[in-house]
């Protein structure tokens, strides 16, 4: 039997999620339109950009969402979600400790790992697990655990299809379609809470994230994120379309050579929900769902990342953003100032070992040059070898905390002590998380040795 490639199942899934979310959160549809308009203006104004994106096959998938996020309640939920995403060719990459920002969660990103799979559809899901062990109120933690033990977030039909996929190494086309429809059920919004308003209030008092996870039947998708070619323009134009953006764009400042990830979101909506009550139901509201945009740049090496972390820490020590966004202007100025010491062209980033590249042979080996690792600089200078920046495919814990913070209803930045517990997270997951640095390193190493071999053999891939 032929299986539908996992990459295609992921594409079906991300499209289904997008359609569902647009219906559920109309303001997200407005954001998508704004992003599309700004992307079009950019492409119309910049023919170089258009040509580059065209040749890289980027235009067609420009409007495809890049990521979403969910929050889970228990170890067994994380275990089953890992199995569900595996059917779509998504592996857990990276461990993010959000306790550094005072949030009782730790996270990973389920994403495709190979270059080919990322090119077909890069959809990722930032997945957090709440940490009831960090709650001071032990009785409330036990109550939350008991409530969570009663829910099942993956449908029985979905579980059977996951088992089938695991047993036969994939799914046929009709099973894959049924799987996507069933998987969607897990991420749907439930406007009815499973706990009385009084319980919800106590959970909120412990932490709003805890209430968001414990009070509902399942892990509703809380945002989706398209890619923008100009995040500053979209941020500025949001209010014109009736959208309230968070106070500052997270991540590095605007640069000539984009690094890592810049992201911003619109504030989460306050939505009506019903609580079970002794007689019928009681009306209330819950804030969880929002929309986000992202712009990605080159992946940084451990040295580059350490420099990034230092520049960011310097910024945050110099300028703080308050709960309703006060101090945002000072923050942006401090960010620009702190990153002045960060090289801002690809030659320097590469030569200084700060960023990851992918090499390719672009012209025949010039006379007098060897296709050897020692000659890389000369080969690059001659144009025989080209180094393309590797796009950063992952997330940033401080930025993620800022996004969490703003969708919990505050722009206030916080810095807390850390209590990472990767072992506990991986035990729940049922496997180790993939190291994102190892993935970038391998792509760089492999591409260089292949490009050198191609040059030596006289095989040249035109740009
Ligand atoms: C996830 C927030 C983090 C990102 O892009 O960094 C995030 C959440 O609110 O559950 O989505
Ligand atoms: Ni996000």
TrEMBL record:
- InterPro entries assigned: HGLS, YdcJ_bac-like
Instruction: Tell me which cofactor or cofactors this protein depends on.
Output: Fe(2+)
What domain of life is recorded for the organism? Bacteria
Which SMART domains does the annotation name?
A: DUF1338 (SM01150)
Keyword Cell inner membrane found: no
Q: Any idea which UniProt keywords this protein has? A: Dioxygenase, Iron, Oxidoreductase
Instruction: Name the top EC class.
Output: oxidoreductase
PANTHER family xrefs: 2-OXOADIPATE DIOXYGENASE_DECARBOXYLASE, PTHR39479
Name recorded for this polypeptide: 2-oxoadipate dioxygenase/decarboxylase
Q: Which organism is it from?
A: Pseudooceanicola antarcticus
